[in-house]
Amino acid sequence: MLRPDDAPVHTHPHPHTHPHGTPPSDDAGETVTIEQKVLAKNDLLAERNRTWMSGRGVVAVNMMSSPGAGKTTLLERTIGDLDGRRPVAVVEGDQETGLDADRIRRTGCAVVQVNTGAGCHLDAEMMRDALTALSPAEDSLLMVENVGNLVCPALFDLGERAKVVIISVTEGTDKPLKYPYMFAAADLILINKADLLPYVDFDVEQCARHARSVNPDVRVLTVSATTGENMAQWYDWLTEQR
Ligand code: MG
Q1: 35 alpha carbon to ligand 1 midpoint, in Å?
Q2: How far is the CA of 64 from the centre of ligand 1 (A)?
Q3: Span 178-189, average pLDDT
Q4: Which residues, 6 or more positions from 168, have their beta carbon under 8 angstroms from its beta carbon?
Q5: Which pLDDT belongs to residue 108?
Q6: pLDDT at 236 over 90
Q7: Averaged pLDDT for residues 227-240
Q8: What sign results for the dihedral spanned by CA atoms 51, 126, 218, 77?
């Protein structure tokens, strides 16, 4: 089974270096060393985040998807439906703007926006700073909306309890095959926008099959954050993460 650690180590122009997909160059040896250090430092910070959160009963869930899969809408619905039954705080990751944090704030939920600039993912240091800013309550749920892409966020442990990958029915069912590291890292896959199934050519079973070809035991739920369809199963899963 593919794991993020199996990802090939490369780099391309970025504000920082990390595993990616460009051909090796003359300085490849040096690049690999730097990238291994970047990931090792991240893993150390992630482990500290994990220890800090588990000491307080805080359960963090790292939500990852392509842009536009419905992460923010899913969070808005989730916060509304949980309706104070459990404290929730949110970390919003985007390259720019505070638009998603504004949406979450309107639900009354504590939220911090992290802008990554040219960066394409959240990392454990950003997560640590977000934890400091939010100071999440004991036994709370910390929903982390990562930057929308199916590549880089898979490689960076934030110290979360679980990774959730969201794919919407307006995407191709072959996404798990094209982005296997992301789907292999998932503890749960949500197929979102189920309300649009009558209007699009998306085979739910085929998508689930593709996902299980890279992650045999992964749980797959089909939901609609717009209509609420099957969202109860998602809430049950969140409760199980306690
Ligand atoms: Mg969003």
Answers
A1: 28
A2: 10
A3: 98
A4: 65, 66, 68, 69, 70, 191, 192, 193, 196
A5: 95
A6: yes
A7: 98
A8: positive
Q: Which fold has domain 4-11+24-240?
A: Rossmann fold (3.40.50)
Angle among Cα 207, 227, 172 to the nearest 5 degrees reads 20
Measured between alpha carbons, how far is residue 124 from residues 180, 182, 187 in Å? Answer: 22, 17, 19
Contact call for residues 123 and 155 (beta carbons, < 8 A): no
| Range 128-140 average pLDDT | 97
pTM of the model: 0.88
- Six-digit token string for 24: 């090796």
User: How remote is the CA of residue 70 from the centroid of ligand 1, in Å?
Assistant: 7
Tell me the pLDDT tens digit for each residue of 70-90.
999 999 999 999 988 999 999
Cα–Cα distance, 153 to 5 (Å, whole number): 13
Q: How far is the CA of 102 from the centre of ligand 1 (A)?
A: 11
